[in-house]
Amino acid sequence: xxxxxxxxxxxxxxxLVVSVTCQATLLDSGFTARSVEAAxxxxxxxxxxxxxxxxxxxxxxxxxxxxxxxxxxxxxxxLLLPPDVLAxxxxxxxxxxxxxxxxxxxxxxxPEVLQPVVDRAVTVLxxxxxxLVASAPRLTPQAVAEFDRQFxxxxxxxxxxxxxxxxxSVTLTSGAVTQMASVLTSGLSRPEAAxxxxxxxxxxRRGDLTGALAMVLPHYLDGRFRAALRAQLDAVSSxxxxxxxxxxxxxxxxxxxxxxxSWWIDLLMAVLTLLLLLLSLRRATxxxxxxxxxxxxxxxxxxxxxVFLTSVLPDPLRDASQLVAASPAQRSLLxxxxxxxxxxxxxxxxxxxxxxxxxxxxxxxxxxxxxxRGRPAARRSLLTGTATAxxxxxxxxxLVATGTPVATCxxxxxxxxxxxxxxxxxxxxxxxASSSRGFVNADQDPDLEGxxxxxxxxxxxxxxxxxxxxELRDFVLSLDPQTHTxxxxxxxxxxxxxxxxxxHNVCQLGADNAIDQLRRVGMWLRQHPDAVVTxxxxxxxxxxxxxxxxxxxxxxxxxATPPTRGAPWPTLGRMVAQDRRLVVMTERxxxxxxxxxxxxxxxxxxxxxxxxAQALTCAAGRGHADAGLFLLNNWVSTPAPxxxxxxxxNAAGFLQRRIARCMxxxxxxxxxxxxxxxxxxxxxxxxxxxxx
Length: 692
Hints:
Blueprint: H1 2-24, H2 31-38, H3 41-49, H4 53-62, H5 70-80, H6 83-101, H7 110-113, H8 115-128, H9 141-159, H10 174-184, H11 190-205, H12 209-220, H13 223-241, H14 250-260, H15 263-280, H16 288-312, H17 316-323, H18 328-371, H19 375-402, E1 425-428, H20 448-453, E2 458-465, H21 469-472, H22 481-486, H23 488-491, E3 500-503, E4 511-513, H24 514-527, E5 533-539, H25 543-552, H26 572-577, E6 582-586, E7 596-598, H27 599-602, E8 603-605, E9 629-634, H28 643-649, H29 652-666, E10 672-675, H30 683-690
Parallel strand pairs: 1-2, 1-10, 2-5, 5-6, 6-7, 8-9, 9-10
Antiparallel strand pairs: 2-3, 3-4
Helix pairs in contact: 1-15, 1-16, 1-18, 2-6, 2-18, 3-18, 6-8, 9-13, 10-11, 11-12, 16-18, 17-18, 18-19
């Protein structure tokens, strides 16, 4: 009878551990989102999944009916759906799904789950065009239905040439009329363009831009375009209206998960465990070994139950990772997330079992120490063990604190003995243009600090003055003052801002104050005293403003002075020891003294604009043929920076073969290997191989 009570206590303890484990993992909204983050799942979505062939093929098929290049989608997806938005969506979905399976909610509200996406889209629009939208709309089923209805009306109007907005009337010169008519019909076939010439000229001479666009637009919206657009909208609407399906055995799931997710089951099992344990040990004199045996049996039963549940319960992510054959990247990500989930559950379960075992053993030891005969000896043993542990811990702490650190340069001891020009550095093309900083058509994902954290040691930055309205409105240069006044409201957000900015081509599509961002680079350098970093500046500002920007950012004291051309560079060890760890060079200005120098006085490069991976050559670009530094430009100039192209040219095999070819042709090892989307592919590993 006593053993039956003890086994029952062990069973109740197992149920208690299973219940608390479920509440801390599967029934904790945020557990899955944290597991995805632990597997680096959000970043891998952009660096591995999006560039994969399967996803690129699907994108081309989905966008085949729309006049949009797939690179615009893959380049800007992280801007519209950054990791924090994905995590918010997953957390909301997980929270609602837990409420569904535990009976506290009828169904998942997909519009509510997707609200962070709408909020982010509005934020991006507000950044690009201030004042365009005041706040994010609430994404409700009623709002989605109304949008679907309005969109159908809008599309029908476009098909018959009615625009939903009226543009201001303008006065155009004859030359401007011809030019604008040519632009408006440039995408049409020659017969279509010829048939529209006369009526289009008539509308433009009257300054009726609304009528001109209304006449031309239906010719672009052919049947294929409209069908594709309609299909896309229908797919989105269906996804919004659909809810996450309930479990196949809904009643059974609720009967199991509802109790496991409640606090009262924990209290009940804890009380039953203690009651059964007391009943099994109800004799006046209880041996401590007997109690220890009960603890061991209880923990063993719990461990066996855990192994049984692990082998019996289904694992949908593991099954999916084995079924998805189209993309190894998808299989790998699913398997890693599944591993994180299983690891989290196992760790929690085993921790609770261990805690139960420790509590039981502590009880047995206390029973022995205070109820047995050898009480003084037990106390002495306890004190001696505690003192020994404290002394050993203190000694270990002293040894760790007083140990002599090994000097490193850029993370490696062997690089300290090499000259600056004898080391290879991973460089990021248009480093400032990151999706993390809100740039449209970004070339990188992390910000400058994130790139440095990821092993980048050369940042290619554009210094510019803010893009003026005059530079953006070429198409209205010939318009009269009245027309300028009519467009004033549209162009107001484009007003110039003082200072030097980090932006690519057009600052309105992404910009950061140069001083602010370089201060953050300086903070990073101070936190990493062994790092040697290079700034390669495409300077569209004066040399004086480059110097002033570096000085105001607090970087002047870290700058190294390059040697006279032909003289040896200092070693990285010397640069680190002297805390002169920042090399700053410009592409245009040609200062010949001091810490700021022209990059191409010291360096040569490969061509910086290439339309395909196959066209990447080792031919001479800018710079002297006998320069001591060599910049390998390794990116493809697609309409927007392409993740698929980056995944291909940043792959270890491709990059290693290209480097070997260029070393043979140019007779020099690359000093800088410049890439787009540096976290995609194995560019860092290849550069580390060059330094090994």
